[in-house]
């Protein structure tokens, strides 16, 4: 069974007021579905009639919001008339501050230090110092025949687009996505253009083979597949493991796609 945290619901008797506060406090904009995207988690603020106007036990659930600059974040909240129960204070490897939203829910601001990330052998998140650094990345794959590609992705990979537009199909996976777009140019297929992380690569290969997907076989210096799967040395520290097992296939348009499973010590 696969389980993931899809979203959080903040119930309120006045959702418009509460939603506006979070937008003003943290510079958020609701998605078309009404979610506030905070990192990888969507927060939905909705009306319920079986709750009190103010949280009876506000510390039962605490929203931990990670910020780049706790002092400026706290100043922004104070400008909105927010009350702090704990002013910004240093606790070992991070700054913490605790405040309350208009419904009395506890909101905790956290600014992790560079020492925190170093102690865990992880790179610190990149702050939004440029438009690109503050943006999101998505893969786009060219297709000479978009209808053919759509059928192939449905039949071979079991995927249907989340939405479409003239000349484009968008596929959603949690908070990540890729798009197929109509193009007069063809893909060379000489390098990996998109990749997935999977928990069981042998099961994934078997499943796609049963759907008619053909996997690439390689016998090159430093890269050799056995029954479609290769062992690749090296791994990014934040990804865990010491390498990965990987496999590759081409879609109907010649795009080379891969997926991998981490090799743990």
Describe the 3D structure.
By secondary structure, this protein is of the alpha+beta class. It folds into two domains: 113 residues, 2,3-Dihydroxybiphenyl 1,2-Dioxygenase, domain 1 (Roll); 125 residues, Roll (2,3-Dihydroxybiphenyl 1,2-Dioxygenase, domain 1). It has five helices and 17 strands. Strand 5 and strand 6 form a beta hairpin. It is globular, with a radius of gyration of 23 Å. The two termini are 24 Å apart.
Topology (SSEs and partners):
Elements: E1 7-12, H1 15-26, E2 35-38, E3 41-47, E4 62-66, H2 70-79, E5 84-91, E6 94-100, E7 106-112, H3 114-119, E8 139-143, H4 146-157, E9 163-165, E10 168-173, E11 176-182, E12 194-197, H5 201-210, E13 219-220, E14 223-226, E15 229-233, E16 243-250, E17 256-263
What is the string of helix and strand elements?
EHEEEHEEEHEHEEEEHEEEEE
In this structure, how is the largest beta sheet organized?
6 strands, mixed
Tally of DSSP helical segments: 5
Strand content: 35-45%
Strand arrangement within the widest β-sheet reads: 12-17-16-15-14-13
Domain count: 2
Q: Mean pLDDT, rounded to whole units? A: 90
- Alpha carbon gyration radius: 23 Å
The CATH architecture term of the largest domain is Roll
Q: Assign the CATH topology of the largest domain.
A: 2,3-Dihydroxybiphenyl 1,2-Dioxygenase, domain 1
Helix content: 10-25%
What is the number of strand segments? 17
What are the segments in which pLDDT stays under 50 over at least 5 consecutive residues?
none
Shape: globular
Determine the N-to-C terminus distance.
Answer: 24 Å
User: What is the CATH top level name of the largest domain?
Assistant: Alpha Beta
Helix/strand-derived class?
Answer: alpha+beta
